[in-house]
Amino acid sequence: MNFRNLLMASAMTAAAIGFVAPAPAVAAGAKDVQLLNWWTSGGEAAALDVLKQYLAKEGYAWKDVPVAGGGGEAAMTTLKAMVAGGDPPMASQILGYFALDYAEAGKLANVNSLAKKEDWAKVLPTALQKFTTTDGNWDAIPINIHSVNWIWVNKAVMAKIGGTEPKNFAELIALMDKAKKAGVTPLALGGQPWQEAILFDSVVASTGGIGFYKKAFIDLDETALKSDTMKTAFDNLAKLRAYVDPNYAGRDWNLATAMVIKGDALMQVMGDWAKGEFKVAHKEAGADFLCYRFPGTDGSVIYNTDMFAMFKVPESQRAGQLALADASMSVAVQSAFNAIKGSVPARMDVPDTAFDMCGKKGIADVKKANAAGTFVGSMAQNYAQPPAIAEAYHDVVTKFFHGEIKTSTEAVADLYKSIEAAK
Ligand code: BGC
Description:
Elements: H1 3-16, E1 32-37, H2 42-57, E2 61-66, H3 73-84, E3 91-94, H4 96-104, H5 112-118, H6 120-123, H7 126-132, E4 133-134, E5 137-138, E6 140-142, E7 144-147, E8 150-154, H8 155-161, H9 169-181, E9 185-187, H10 193-218, H11 222-225, H12 228-240, H13 253-262, E10 265-269, H14 274-280, E11 289-293, E12 301-304, E13 307-310, H15 318-328, H16 331-341, E14 344-345, H17 357-372, E15 375-377, H18 387-401, H19 408-422
Helix pairs in contact: 1-3, 2-14, 2-16, 10-12, 10-18, 12-19, 18-19
The structure holds beta-D-glucopyranose (BGC).
């Protein structure tokens, strides 16, 4: 299959599962940088522009391979088809265990010379290096650290209902009741599996504590997975159903964010890419919106990192690939890019001066959590377990949220069974 047919085939798969087809990619030349990515929302595109401009100044033209679809599911389908067809992109945005799979399959190139020269091992959290390196080879470049255990709140709506920051799950419910009484949708949710799974990451950590989250999702400990605490987590998730609007099913994440921006909803539970949408809408942290850690998870960072996997490419494309890696790891790009994107720099030595109050909190939280052992990979976002297990998780959580799995007891049993089957 040639390159274009491959893209069409993956576009058809993507369309079949409800995503927008990717734009045709252009083969990269010597002074080109090609990146497959799913950064197609307003905030995401604005952040990506920082990287494009930086590389343009160095004389590199940007060859975008955008594959719309939040969370990157459609992008990963496209990437798989391109790699299988022997025509991988120069680099691809990628999450956690997906990168490890490509590395193990021998598909990735390394940028060891750059990594050594700039001593990346010193400036990146150790936890991330499990995903950026394989057998000591640096083959994925982390441009940021996102975290999923955030709540994004419309400040004016909060003032109108007389709300304050919820410190535990019960207070969260009480706050949402206030919004409901005032006729505002309490919780803006995009009812897609990956978004519901993100919500459940936070609910599990809030219900059982971060130690429980780690046992269940990082260790896949049978007792934790089958515990009453997990059942209570599903009960808590079920409680949240009462606070979403009737049209939530299938909604894109950025449209849910827009509901909060406009004041049609009080809050969204979402990764800090949501902040990028507030920013492009010219809304300011502290003045127009507020960021809280999901109640009961302050002090913990449930992270995902956007990495660029470096694929094996013809020698003629190598300069562009190295330029992308170099730019993405530069302090200047990590500062400017992440201030717009909503994430925080992957490099721990980037000052927080360019960041708003939420970004400053995000940077401090990562440092604290990294030191305290509470910097933990997101199960929803492929940083706790390999793709097959993460997919099983999405599936059970979404079936439960939409009522296909009826009780929490059944959900607990199904989750354990599906995880076992996916191992
Ligand atoms: C990525 C973010 C992106 C979000 C929504 C996440 O998987 O890490 O960079 O903004 O998906 O598309």
